[in-house]
Amino acid sequence: MEVFLTLADFSIALAGFTSVVIVFVQQGERWRDVDAFRIRNALFLSIASAFLSFFPFLFQLLHFSEKNIWANCSYLFIMAVFTFWVIQINRYKKLSIEDKELIPMKVIIMVSTVLFTAIILQIVNVLIYCEPGLYMLSILLLLFLSFFAFVRSIFYRPKS
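RE: above sequence
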């Protein structure tokens, strides 16, 4: 269970670092919709990783059985990530054509593929295993996407 505290620490640090860097990068400039889209991705994924890392401790405090801890964590993961994906796809559709050109379709496909891989891992965890390994792997996938979104928001910025 200690690994989940480490994941939570890393998630919170990534969210904080993302926020600080974005404030300095955006100083004096008008935020574009595509910037907000990227920032939401990076921040949500890192904050979600932190919260999802704390749920095993919450369920342990509530005296859930080992199997129920991981099943409930997986259910929460599926709901959070699927909801995030639906909201972000709708936000992507609302971007202007110019902003959509700044986020290549291959990036949307890659992010969606990783999110659905994480969801499938959690479905397998609920139906077959109910163990921490797949849950931890899925949180690591969210952190990978958060880092990817952070790097893209810094190095692939549109020209104003």
